[in-house]
Specification:
This is C3H1-type domain-containing protein. The protein has helices at about 70-80, 120, 135-145, 175-180, 205-220, 240-255, 255-260, 275-280, 300-310, 325-330, 330-335, 350-360, 390-400; strands spanning about 5, 30-40, 45-50, 55-60, 85-95, 105-115, 170, 175, 265, 285-290, 320, 340-345, 365, 405-410, 415-420. It is an alpha/beta fold. The protein folds into three domains: about 5-120, Nucleic acid-binding proteins (OB fold (Dihydrolipoamide Acetyltransferase, E2P), Beta Barrel), CATH 2.40.50; about 135-220, no CATH class; about 240-420, 3-Layer(aba) Sandwich (Rossmann fold). α6 packs across α8 (about 275-280). The radius of gyration is 27 Å and the shape is elongated. The chain starts with a strand and ends in a 16-residue tail after the last strand.
């Protein structure tokens, strides 16, 4: 396999001449379209590269000493997107299957280069494997195989429920998420070779309904954060999160304290939900800081119109700026006299809110969401742990001040609030959450 270059299935070594120790240290190059990615952990990713003839080559990206580390795998995840044309280098390993399945090659990736971005010629379009350039006959065969692939082969893993912790189980079998997440089951490329349960084709509609219901319940449990004592099934829809957050602010600090001085500063709340709840609904002075112009939804526009007609209260002011040192210097009085800095899922601005509040000696309350580890790759907790998960991000923010504390709000999704209301209090206290 020295110098082997693979662009189609015929370029692969014949399986009938391969042995179990057919893996080689000779580097193989593979050119094709990256069409699927399955992250099992930070150090292990599986995927599929579609070759020019439509054949799929399974790819394993695994942390190995002197080959790939976790940081390199993370970078590959960032750089390679579904649909991208790539050239990858690595080694081929024979993948033995149980009786009933043909053997195949597993490509163990060492490095990868993006030759052409999918987004370059498909701006705004979401990649689908049906757009990946496979010939009509290949697609038709795959579709036919999927629609008729209800019989479980002898080596099927559909019954191995103990081996998978994130599977939806139907009728005692592990259901194929690709099959049931698509119309007619078209997203399962494996067809009759799929290890997981498809059910009878005539039962697809009902089985998909059952799969969807269980998947929604499963995702609600998965989104439940450690330490949150609330029942994930009793939480209010995330559309109400701004109201719940503001109710909690009023319960925690009181209207008088929130309205003190120049009032509340809401950072990165471009939709205006926080100002609507605090200023329009309660009369608490609020200033929005966001480089994007405020974009109110239809319901919020009605609330503003009503408040203006009844109380003469127009929408609050906005600074079309990011929260940075220049903004702090240009608007010294606003920040010096504000009551609290807040942010509901403020993304890139999350850490900036905390840092600004601590520097100013002001209270803050934020509900972090996205970790943004690509934008801030150098963040580390005090013990050197990279900040690349939600849990480490929360720890990183709490470590910024000994009095910072956290609590949970009763809405679905990322609902952990981190706050500091008294910079002089060294002891962390639990925050009482009012039921909204």
């Amino acid at each position: 396999m020295t110098g082997l270059h693979v662009e189609s299935q015929r370029d692969l070594p014949p399986l009938d001449a391969a042995s179990e120790d057919s893996s080689s240290d000779n580097i193989v190059s593979v050119h094709g379209r990256f069409i699927r990615k399955r992250n099992l952990s930070k150090a292990l990713v599986f995927g599929d590269i579609q070759l020019q003839d439509g054949a799929l080559l399974e790819v394993m990206i695994r942390a190995q000493e002197d080959v790939l580390d976790v940081a390199a795998i993370r970078q590959i995840n960032w750089d390679v997107h579904l649909g991208d044309l790539v050239t990858a280098h690595g080694v081929l390993q024979l993948k033995r299957h149980e009786p009933g399945h043909s053997d195949g090659w597993l490509f163990v990736l060492h490095s990868i280069r993006v030759d052409e971005l999918w987004s370059l010629h498909h701006e705004g379009a979401v990649f689908s494997y049906t757009d990946s350039g496979a010939g009509p006959s290949t697609e038709a065969a795959a579709s036919a195989a999927v629609k008729g692939s209800w019989v479980l082969p002898p080596s099927s893993k559909a019954g191995d429920t103990n081996k998978y912790t994130n599977m939806v189980v139907l009728d005692g079998f592990n259901a194929c998420k690709y099959y049931f997440s698509s119309s007619g089951g078209a997203n399962c490329l494996r067809g009759e070779q799929c290890h997981f349960w498809h059910g009878r084709p005539e039962d697809f509609k009902e089985n998909r309904r059952r799969w969807t219901a269980k998947r929604i319940e499963q995702r609600a449990k998965a989104a439940h954060l450690a330490g949150d004592s609330g029942d994930p099934h009793s939480k209010i829809d995330k559309a109400q999160r701004s109201r719940i957050f503001c109710d909690w602010l009023v319960e925690s600090l009181g209207v008088e304290r929130l309205a003190d001085g120049t009032g509340v500063i809401d950072v990165a709340g471009g939709k205006g939900d926080i100002p609507i709840q605090l200023w329009i609904q309660r009369g608490i002075p609020t200033t929005l800081i966001d480089p994007r112009p405020m974009k109110l939804g239809k319901y919020n526009r009605k609330l503003v119109a009503k408040a203006e007609a009844v109380e003469g209260r127009k929408m609050c002011s906005q600074l079309l700026r990011c929260l940075d040192e220049e903004t702090l210097k240009l608007h010294t009085e606003l920040f010096a006299d504000c009551s609290v800095l807040v942010g509901m899922h403020p993304d890139e601005a999350t850490e900036a809110i905390v840092d600004a509040a601590i520097a100013l000696g002001k209270p803050f309350a934020i509900v972090p969401c996205c970790v943004m580890s690509r934008v801030f790759p150098d963040r580390q907790c005090r013990d050197g742990t990279p900040v690349d998960t939600y849990e480490t991000f929360v720890r990183y923010l709490l470590e910024k001040h000994p009095s910072a504390r956290s609590a949970f709000l009763p809405f679905a999704g990322r609902n952990q609030v981190i706050c500091l209301f008294d910079c002089d209090t060294a002891e962390r206290e639990s925050v009482e959450i009012s039921s909204a």
